[in-house]
């Protein structure tokens, strides 16, 4: 006899899979279920459209933090490439960063 997961467990697993940002294989392994099983649950329970009110705020905060991290990472990369002679005063940093990014191809 096998233990059947409850509907509550399935809904919680779907919520984790959709909001955690982790790969579904990892979420499935952490929960002790198969990857295809988790995908079936996502198809069954994922279209409910019930997103808690805090989720949109968290998504906006994550996007803001990612932008901020990208800027800091770029500035760090500029300092490394300049051989440590990159100025640390704010106005000089902004001027050098503007020149650096103008020459970059994206």
Distance between the termini: 57 Å
- Sequence of secondary-structure elements: HHHHH
- Number of DSSP E strands: 0
**DSSP strand (E) fraction?**
under 5%
Mean pLDDT: 78
State the helix count: 5
Task: State the share of residues found in helices, binned by percent.
Answer: 55-70%
Number of separate domains: 2
Radius of gyration from CA coordinates: 22 Å
Biggest sheet layout: none
The coarse silhouette is: elongated
Summarize the structure.
This protein is mostly helical. It has helices at 7-19, 24-31, 35-45, 54-81, 90-102. The longest helix is centred in the middle third of the chain and has 28 residues, at 54-81.
Detailed description of the structure:
The protein is an all-alpha fold and 106 residues long. The protein has two domains: 42 residues; 49 residues, no CATH class. 69% of the residues lie in helices and 0% in strands. The chain contains five helices and no strands. The model has no long low-confidence stretch (mean pLDDT 78).
Attribute tags:
106 residues; mainly alpha; 5 helices; 69% helix; elongated
How do the helices and strands line up, and which of them pair or pack?
Elements: H1 7-19, H2 24-31, H3 35-45, H4 54-81, H5 90-102
Helix pairs in contact: 1-3, 2-3
């Amino acid at each position: 006899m096998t233990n059947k997961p409850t509907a509550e467990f399935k809904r919680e697993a779907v919520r984790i899979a959709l909001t955690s940002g982790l790969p579904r294989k990892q979420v499935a392994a952490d929960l002790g279920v198969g990857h295809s099983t988790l995908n079936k649950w996502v198809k069954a329970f994922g279209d409910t459209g019930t997103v808690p009110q805090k989720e949109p705020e968290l998504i906006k905060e994550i996007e803001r933090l990612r932008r901020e991290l990208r800027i800091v990472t770029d500035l760090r990369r500029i300092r490394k490439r300049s051989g440590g002679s990159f100025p640390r005063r704010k106005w000089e940093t902004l001027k050098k960063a503007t020149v650096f990014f103008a020459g970059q191809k994206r």
